[in-house]
Amino acid sequence: MSGARSPRRATMREVAALAGVSIKTVSRVVRGENGVSPALATRVTDAAAMLGYRHNLAASTLRGHGQRTAAIGLVLMDVANPYASALHRAVEDVAHGRGTLVFAVSSDEDPGRQREVLDALLSRRVDGLIVMPVGTDHAMLLQEQSRGTPIVFVDRRPALDIDSVTADNRDGARRAVEHLAAQGHRRIAYLGDLRTIWTAAERYAGYVEGLAHTGVPLDPALVRADLHSPAAAESATTALLTRPDPPTAIFSAQNLVTVGALRAIGRLGLSRTVALVGFDDLPLAELLAPALTAITQDPSVIGRTAAEILFARVDGDLSPPRHRVIPTRLLPRGSGEIAPDGG
Question: How far apart are CA 8 and CA 3, in angstroms?
Answer without folding.
Answer: 15
